[in-house]
Structure formats: C-alpha cells, structure tokens
Amino acid sequence: MTEATGIVGEFLTLKEGTDADLLAMQCGDFYEFFAEDAEIVADELDLKVSQKSSHGSSYPMAGVPVDDLTPYVSALVERGYRVAIADQHETENGHAREITRVVTPGTHLETGDESAQYLAAVVREASRDSGDTYGIAATDVTTGQFQVTQLDDADAGEALTELYTFGPAEILPGPELRNDDEFLDRLRERTDAALTLHDSASFEPGRASHTVREQFGSETVDSVGIGDQNVAVRAAGAVLSYVEDTGVGTLAAVTRLQAYGERDHVDLDATTQRNLELTETMQGDSSGSLFDTIDHTVTAAGGRLLQQWLQRPRRNRAELQRRQSCVAALSEAAMARERIRETLSDAYDLERLAARATSGSADARDLRAVQETLALLGQVADAVTETERLAESPLADALDGADREAADSLAAELDSALVADPPGTVRQGGLFKRGHDDDLDEIIDEHEAALEWLETLPDREKERTGITHLSVDRNKTDGYYIQVGKSETDAVPEKYQHIKTLKNSKRYTTPELDEKERDVLRLEERRHDMEYEHFQRLRARVAEHATLLQDVGRTLAELDAFASLAVHAVENDWARPAVVDGNELSIEAGRHPVVEQTTEFVPNDLYMDDDRQFLIVTGPNMSGKSTYMRQAALITLLAQVGSFVPARSATVGLVDGIFTRVGALDELAQGRSTFMVEMQELSNILHSATEESLVILDEVGRGTATFDGISIAWAATEYIVNSIQSKTLFATHYHELTALGEELPTVENVHVAVDGEPRSAGSDGDVTFLRTVRDGPTDRSYGVHVADLAGVPEPVVDRSQAVLDRLRDDKAIEIRGSEQNDGGTTQAVFDLDSGQFRDGAAQSGGAAAGSTAEPVATDGDPEHAPGEAAAEGPKGDERAASLDSETEAVLSELTELDVNETPPVELMAKVQEWQAELDDE
Ligand code: ADP
Ligand code: MG
C-alpha cells in the first residue's frame, strides 16, 4: 500500500525533526506510534502492537483513540518520556501533520498530582574575582508560578540546594553546565528531574532579556531587581522559551515574576532538609515527615503553600509576626475557623484552573469550578469580618490581597452564563443558560421546541392510531424513526413508510418526521457551534483574569495554611514563640513535633545565648540526644515559618541558616564511604555557617577510629567556637569532649540523665532512660555503665573499665581558646587518663601543675613536648643496632610514603608487600 509508505515515512521524518523521546501522530481517529516508539509504548502501557507494511518492510504500530490520548501521554510522561504530538489538519490537497505540542515532565499540564511541578533552568557564569554566579529560574506551568534567583559568588552547593528545594520534574542546564560531569552527577544525586538540553541560543543574554521583558514587561523586570542580574535573566529567558516551544500554551498565565534573594530565606541545605525529614523521612516516605504531621490543609493549593513555607523559612521578623498573629487569631476563634475550613473544603484549585483556561484546555465544568471558588472568597471574608477576633487580626489585610469586587463580578458573569451542572464536553451544547445571548436563545428555543415536538410525538401518534407499543427514537443509521411492536404493525397509518424490520418490531418514518429531523439536525449543529463559540469567548474572558484567579487562589491557600497551623497548635498544645533578633534560643518544656505524636514524650528545656553558644550533649545510646537536638532545630524552623511550636514557651533568636550533620546510615546505600560523606558535610558546615546560624552536629567523627574521631571533633568544636561562633549543639559519645565545656567560656555541657535505678519497661527487661536533659557532663563511662545496667556479667564489665582506662592512658590534649577572648591560644591541657586538667597557658599554673605529673606540650613550645618525646620510643641509633636490613628498608619506605597521596588500594598492596618482606626473615 503506497498510503502506508506515506504514513510511516511521514512519521519517521517528523520524528527526526524533534528531540522528543516518542512521537504520537494523528491518523484520523487515532494517534499512532510506529517502529521503535510503538514497541516502547506497547511495553509501557500494555497496548497491542500490530504490523504496518511499508516499502516491503513491516513496522510495528500501536495506537490510541484520539479522545483517549491525554491519559496515555500522562502515563508516559510520568515514566519520564518526552512525548511529541503531531496533529492532523485538512489542507487543499488532503491531510497535513505537524508537531503542535511536546509534553515533557516539566510542562505536563494534566498531572494527576496535587503537589507543585517545577520546570527549572540553571546557568553559571564565572565572575571576575572569585567564585561563580548561578542563576536559577523555576516555573510551575500548572499554576503559573515563576521564581528566579541569582546566587552570587556561590559554589555549586548553593545552586544544587536551591534546585533540591524546588524538586523540579525537569531541569534545563545552561550550555556551560552541560559538560560539567561533576555538577550533573551531583544534580542527579539530589533530584529525579529529567535533564533536557534546550536550545543554547535561548540562554544568550540578549535573547533571554528580550524574552523576559516581553513576558513580564520591562518595568516589572526592573522593579523586582532582576533587570541587572544577567545570570538570573538568562535562566528565566530559557525557561520561558522552553514553555513556548513545547506548546503547552500557559505562558499567558505566567504573569508574576517573583525574584527572591539569599537574604529572604533561612539557608537549609539538602542534607539538612533530609535530616530534619521536612517533607519525607530518611527512608523516603512522605508519611512521618514534618509536613505530613502538621498538614491539616483542606485544599491542594493550601497544602502546596504550607510545604513551601516549611522548605523556605523566613528571616523577616515582621512577616513572621504577621503570620503568627493570623495563626493566633484562628487558633482562638475556633467556631469561625471551622466555618472557614468547611467553606474552603469546597474550593477548587484556582491557580491550576487559571493555567487550564489560558492553555484552552478548560471545559465548562472547570469554569463552573472557577465560579464556585471565586464565590467562596466572599464567604470566607464574611466569616472574618463577622468574627471580632479575626477582624482585628492581619487576616483581614490578607484577604484584601485579592480583589473581591472583581472576583464577585467574574463569578456573577460565569454564573449567569453557564448552566448549573454543565456536561463534560464543550462541543455538544447544553452549556449555557437562557439570557446569555439573544441569538443563541433563539436557536436554543427553536431547537428545544423541535425536540419537544419529537418527545411528544409518541403520545400524539398513540392517541391518533390507537397503537399502544409505539416509541420514537434515533440512531446513527436510521436517524429518527417511529418503532411499532410487531403485533400492532397492521394498524399503522398509510403515511408511515417502512424502513426496517427487527425481531419484535418494525421501524417507520413519515414525511413530517423527516422534515423535523432535518430541522433538529440543522438546529443542533447550529446550536453546538454557537455554544462552542460562546464558550471559547467565555474561557478567554476567564484567561484574561488569570492574575485575579491566582490572587484569589493564593489568598485562599494562605488562609488554609494559617488555619492548618492553628488546628495543629490547638490540638497539640503548641505555644506562640517570641521571635527576636540576637542569639537567644530558649525553650521551656520543648518536644519533638513528630515524635510527640507517637510517644509519651518527656519534655525538655534548652537554653542558649551569647554566653552559652555551644552545647555539648552527652548521654548513653538511645537516651534521646539526637531527638533533643533535632527538636531544637525544628522548633527554630517552625518559628521561622510563622508557626506555633511544641513547647510550653519559647524565645527564638532568628537564624540565617540551619545546618545539620545527623546520622549516616542512609549514605552507605549510595556507595560513598560513610566517613567521606560525614567529612564532606562537616566541611560544608564549617564553610557555610555564620555566627547567626544554628548548627547541629550529631556524633561527628564516629565514622573513623576513636582517636581520629576525637581529634576531628575536638578541632571542629574549637573552630566553631572561636572562628564561626554559631549557635551549636554537638552530641557526642566522646566523653573527652566535655573537657571543652568545662574550659571554654561559651561552651557548656548538658547531658541526658540516666536514671540510677533503671526503670524496666515491661517484662522484656528493656532498660529505659529518664530522658531529662540537665546541665553538666554525663558520667564518663556511660558505655560501660549501660553494659552494667543491661546485665552484662560482672567480670566483663570490670575488665571493660580496665581496658578503657588503659586506652586512655597517657593521653593529653590542649584546649585552644580564641586569641581575642582569652589572650592566649592554649586554654588548658586535659589529661585523658586522669580526666583532670594539667597545666595550660591561660591557667593559673601553680596549683594545677602541682597536682599532675609533668607539664605537657603547648602551642608555644612544641619541640620539647615530653609526651611526644616519650611516644617516639627508642632513639634512631639504638633502633639501627637492633634492626636487620629488611626491616630498615620497610621502615624507610614507610617513612617516605605520602599517605594522603596514595590511593587506598595501593596502600593495601604496599602493606601486604611489607608484611611479606618481614615474614621472610
Ligand atoms: P540517642 O541519639 O541518644 O541515641 P535518640 O534521640 O535516637 O537517642 O532517641 C532514642 C529513642 O528515644 C527514640 O526512639 C526516640 O523517639 C526516643 N526519645 C528520645 N527523646 C525522647 C523523649 N524526650 N521522650 C520520649 N521519647 C524520646
Ligand atoms: Mg543519636
């Protein structure tokens, strides 16, 4: 068949011209996939493959009916494919087909998912002096949101964090990032986004700037301050051009350019978001996350907003107080709150409806949903004004954010146009009420009259003919007909013309019926066309109001989010925290917001300020150290969301960032060594945290040998205390670190108290702990203590203690303070053996020195450290005398080997080699 050749050929040509993964090409009433595409689609979607022959070869073919395309495409896109759609249209000489739309993960309008769906672009430029500048733009085509930011002098980590926070479905890397494998790898580690190489030209500054100004207007671009942010503009331009190219048709709904800077938000890196389990648990479940726990929103948009708040806590005190006041008012006005939530639960997703109206995919039911939701604004506004507690709160202002008059008038317009319960298809009439348009009314009247005539025809005919089994119906082949039961066919009047005989009946028509049929068909077609035209006009009216819809949608979403926070606060007895400037963090009877849901939680206090900047948290395993620290981080975070917090009372000094290093179990799965990851994260914290940050370190150093670990933990503590000065909580099982708490002025020890007489939890003999946090360090040998409590035999416990003492033998560490604070570098020297301080530069020498054996090394006098000398062992020449030449050789190789420069595998090989050499003797 030559026609077949044509179709497959055309398919392959179109496919060549697109970089989409799959092509669906319209062929009459079907969309067809051919060749390889057919096989992929059939596999993914369980479609049947048939064969299409062309040029003597045969091609696999799979198709879906035109009306069913959307769900199939959605399913493919959700599996990560980019699907091009070629529509067919009539031309003078037959059909022509062209690609009208490419549906991609980031431009997928018919998503079944309520959460935000971001398409992001990221670009990088090397800046003159130091570091790089990253520009990121992200849009959600389903809601018209558009956000841009520029990160100056940033390392890739900050850009990756931004992208992680958006969780985009699709990312367009700029031309300069496409070959940066390291960046791309790290990107893939953090997101599941599809990476798409969009036309490089659209990233060019001139072109991008033009695109952005066209979209938002030059004034807007300048007023939000991205006009001179070249890098941000490049990302924004690329995103807009991609949305345009894919043909999703929602650009008109993208009306608001939101530019945000680094100073607006609390810095939360990807690790911290994961560690604090903000939106999903470490295991990757959304249930059990902070969001899942506190989310009581009743609308999809409200849920999206609340989630966004959690991921982007704020630093602006006025904004936080505004939010708190709204939550406070709603938590007190219980009746009004429930009335508002009840009302909101009828709301549809206005932001998404705006995008559907703009893209031309909204049907009459969607416009009805718009109308019904717009009408809710008035209802909730009434609930606010009628309730004194709410009326005097900032909620009243929040509601003014949306133009109520415009909303009412659009709602009224839609209400007077559309019938109450319109059909799901827009091409078959029945959409409009009478009175919408005179000409339309006339056609509707005529049409209905004709239908009425047909409807009453059976009764008239029965009466006239006396036939009882008579009906009038319609089908595709016969048109309208009169059907008479077999037993009564003898009685039919003469003018009945027989058209068909069935088993139990005969069908007839009459000249009159034929004429009415022609009328009805003509009127029907006319009516459908007219209604469709009017509908398109009405939909365009709604699209013109996209901004209004978004405003109202966001106002309702905000109200929903506030009400949700209020519900959670009331139900869980949370308190409104004081948000203040400065470094205070005080929490009275604080709880962990997620753990308190499932456990009888033992509340704890926390106090930190300038003089108590760094807390070392000690206590046995499973005593609650990690929980206590996360609780501090989550309470700070919630306070900076504007929420109430799980505590009797709290004062939270606003932070610029929260950094955590908690647990390591999940990282093993990624094939990176736990310790490497631990150190990378520590490194990131030490680079990024400032004196306004909150840092949570949980068991840092645990991933390596004990003394290695202590050393790193020790040095990191000194560095944070002396150089960074962030508010820090450090849980450690290295009891040695508590020495720092006793010596450095801003470092304090707290411990989770272990009950002397352990309470037995039930009959299984589990040891339970008190979990109360108190000042001071924990019992130094709690590990052994726990072994004892758990009933390990006495000889083992005793021996453990002895071994521990031996291990700590003869070790001493000096403690460093900062120059300006302490007038000297060395603060004290801690003897790990005795658990006592020896001498130190800043210590008042005499008494302390007298109580211990000898003075040990300080910074000022490193050469003559007696400890070191002792550790060196026998002097060189003595050693030479007692060693054979092989051993000498091994030793000298060992001395020369640069451990840091030698790959671990080589190191192992070396060690084996040496062992073999030494064995030979
Ligand atoms: P650690 O870090 O000291 O090993 P965790 O913080 O992991 O201990 O806590 C151990 C267990 O105790 C967890 O199951 C946690 O839910 C529970 N827990 C911790 N703190 C409390 C508390 N204050 N009240 C009740 N249960 C707690
Ligand atoms: Mg822990």
Search tags:
34 helices, Nucleotidyltransferase, domain 5, seven-stranded mixed sheet, DNA-binding, binds adenosine-5'-diphosphate, DNA_mismatch_repair_MutS-lik_N, binds magnesium ion, 921 residues, six-stranded mixed sheet, 19% strand, 32 strands, alpha/beta, mismatched DNA binding
Strand sequence of the main sheet, in spatial order? 13-23-24-25-21-26-29
Strand content: 15-25%
Bound molecules: adenosine-5'-diphosphate, magnesium ion
Helix content: 40-55%
The radius of gyration computed from the alpha-carbon positions, rounded to a whole number of angstroms, is 37 Å
Amino-to-carboxy terminus distance: 87 Å
Q: Spans with pLDDT under 50 lasting ≥5 residues?
A: 665-671, 756-767, 820-824, 840-880
The CATH class of the largest domain turns out to be Alpha Beta
* Multimerization status: single chain
Number of domains as seen in the coordinates: 6
What structural class results from the helix and strand content? alpha/beta
Strand element count: 32
Which architecture of the largest domain does the CATH hierarchy give at level 2? 3-Layer(aba) Sandwich
The overall pLDDT, averaged over residues, is 85
Give me the secondary-structure topology.
Layout (H helix, E strand, L loop, with lengths): L1 H15 L5 E6 L2 E5 H11 L4 E5 L2 E9 L3 H10 L4 E9 L2 E10 L15 E8 L5 E9 L4 E10 L1 H11 L3 E4 L7 H10 L3 E2 L9 H12 L1 H6 L6 H17 L11 E2 L7 E2 L1 H6 L14 H5 L5 H12 L5 H16 L1 H11 L5 H10 L4 H22 L2 H4 L3 H6 L3 H14 L20 H28 L4 E6 L3 E7 L11 E5 L3 E5 L1 H34 L1 H27 L5 E3 L4 E6 L4 H4 L5 E5 L5 E5 L6 H15 L9 E5 L3 E5 L12 H15 L4 E6 L7 H19 L2 E5 L6 H6 L3 E6 L6 E3 L4 E3 L4 E3 L6 H8 L4 H14 L4 E5 L2 H4 L3 E6 L4 E2 L7 H7 L14 H7 L3 H7 L2 H12 L7 H17 L1
Parallel strand pairs: 1-5, 7-10, 9-12, 10-11, 13-23, 18-22, 21-25, 21-26, 23-24, 24-25
Antiparallel strand pairs: 1-2, 2-4, 3-4, 5-6, 7-8, 8-9, 14-15, 15-17, 16-17, 19-20, 19-22, 26-29, 27-28, 30-31, 31-32
Helix pairs in contact: 4-5, 6-8, 11-21, 12-21, 13-15, 14-15, 14-20, 14-21, 15-18, 19-20, 27-28
Bound molecules: adenosine-5'-diphosphate (ADP) and magnesium ion.
Family: Belongs to the DNA mismatch repair MutS family.
Function: This protein is involved in the repair of mismatches in DNA. It is possible that it carries out the mismatch recognition step. This protein has a weak ATPase activity.
Keywords: ATP-binding, DNA damage, DNA repair, DNA-binding, Nucleotide-binding
